[in-house]
Amino acid sequence: MPPRPTYFPTLAAERPDIALCRASAAVAKAAETHAATQGLGVGQHLVLKMLAEVGACSQQALAEELRIDRSVMVSVCDDLERANYVARERNPADRRSYAVTITDAGRKRLRAAEKTTPAFIDDAFAALTPTEREQLTTLLGKLLAG
């Protein structure tokens, strides 16, 4: 059996940027795997969630708020529209853009996906205590707000 790696913990302590990137990649991979079991990609889930919370908005606003590349957002919205989870209409305030809205089918799909999220989060962050998860959420919020 090969020896257990011992360098990465030292590197992570010296380079929190590297540790965060590696942790983010691991959680992202787990999220995509979980999302695949739900038949709804992570980006699709986030778009439905935001539309359900804030109402109709442009693809640009979705991309900026959810930090999804604009070209990726187009394909996410295309897929959601094909599935009848969202509708796109010309934005009356800006005819050059589209207003994206969640449909009743999209709300139903979101509710189903949201039921599995707490168990996934518990599993993905099982190494952390509830207090540590709260601290991590606060710290990540600070990093993302800047």
Automatic annotation (TrEMBL):
BP-aspect Gene Ontology terms: response to stress
PROSITE patterns: HTH_MARR_2
Database matches in Pfam families: MarR_2
UniProt feature coiled coil, ranges: none
Xref: SMART domains: HTH_MARR
GO MF, one example: DNA-binding transcription factor activity
Domain HTH marR-type: 13-145
Protein origin, superkingdom: Bacteria
PANTHER family listed in its UniProt record: HTH-TYPE TRANSCRIPTIONAL REPRESSOR YETL, TRANSCRIPTIONAL REGULATOR, MARR FAMILY
UniProt protein name: HTH marR-type domain-containing protein
Organism in which the protein naturally occurs: Nocardia camponoti
